[in-house]
Amino acid sequence: MHLKRRWINRQIYEYFAVNLGPLLGWRDPILVYQMGRVGSSSIRNSLFRCRDPRTRLVLMSHEFFPIRNRDPELPAVDPGDREAVRREMAHDRQVFQQFPLRRKISWLWRKRFYRQRIHDAYVRRGDDLRVITLVRDPAAHNVSLFFQVFDQYAGTTIERSGYGVDDMIRLFLERCVHTRPLTWLDAELKATLGVDVYRQPFPVDRGHAVVSEGRVRVLVLRTELDDGAKAQAIARFLDLDRFELVRSNVTADKPHAELYAEFLRRVRLPDSLLDTLYDSKYARHFYSAEERERFRARWSGRPNGS
Predict the structure, then answer these.
(1) What is the pLDDT of residues 133-144, one digit of tens each?
(2) Where is 71: in which H helix or E strand?
(3) Residue ranges of the alpha helices (H) in the chain?
(4) Whether 138 contacts 280, CB under 8 Å
């Protein structure tokens, strides 16, 4: 059985697939599992549109269990990153407590009937898993995520806040949890799936690699790859004859696009934060020394990072 997904709402299909799919014998899911704001929605939505029957079971999650409930003492988390994970947990607890009741119920509903069902039906059972995850320049990730969840930091939407760019930059630098992309692969993916993407060298020139552990295969993609290269890597990984990547949920296409562009032009990161981001295990593994220096130069506003 393969529903004609172009006829129905994607979210309805996702709930159907994860709650009833296992009862119908649907196995071998494709799991788009990654931190937010790395281009994952484009991949998930493009796979949803794909008519190849091998893409019938496409699921996506940023986390299986709330950040606030993570255990920073898990062996998967490097000792040097545990304090950063504790800060993430504290921030997530504070954000959730401030949610209005309706939003809490919506969040808990999706946790119970989508994310937890994915884990119970496929991860915990030990099924064969094909996982796609993405990595991104951590500063670019943080800026994009800041705009996506601005209300969690300001208590209101961008449009209602009345914030100018200077106010937003100040809020970003003072309140944003900048270490989240540095810890996600260990505290989330490794802790849940048992796959350590750091255990083998990453081909920075190619920008993608497959890491396998037992019955789990993970395709790691750099967001900075062009869409054609991403599509080819995904098609090879999933053994698809044809796959086209169409972008969606792009910050630059949203109502506050001009404000976002002005923010990018004006924001400057302090050296201490640049050191944290680009001297990290994460940045050193997925980006060359030359690329990290370019990132530093871009976000410091100094030519060649001088």
Answers:
(1) 999 999 999 999
(2) none
(3) 10-20, 40-49, 82-98, 101-110, 116-118, 138-148, 150-154, 158-161, 165-175, 180-184, 191-193, 227-238, 257-266, 271-278, 281-286, 289-300
(4) yes
Give the pLDDT confidence score for residue 98 in this predicted structure.
Answer: 87
Tokens standing for 123?
A: 């991860």
Residue 127 corresponds to which tokens in the numbers above? 């099924």
> Are the C-beta atoms of 117 and 65 separated by less than 8 Å?
no
| Residue 183, token pair as written in the block | 């810890």
208-213 sheet: strands from edge to edge: 58-61, 30-33, 129-135, 216-222, 208-213
Sequence-distant (6+) residues with CB within 8 A of 172 are 142, 143, 146, 153, 263, 267
Question: Cα(34)–Cα(60) distance, rounded to whole angstroms?
Answer: 8
Task: Return the DSSP state at 223.
Answer: T
pLDDT digits (tens, 9 = 90+) for 10-29: 778 888 888 888 888 888 88
Structure tokens at 96: 């959730």
pTM of the full predicted structure? 0.91
Residues 6+ apart with CB under 8 A from 243: 46, 47, 50, 52, 231, 234, 235
Spatial separation of the C-alpha atoms in residues 238 and 234, rounded to whole Å: 6
Alpha carbon 5 to its chain centroid, in Å, reads: 24
Report the percentage of the chain scoring pLDDT > 90.
Answer: 53
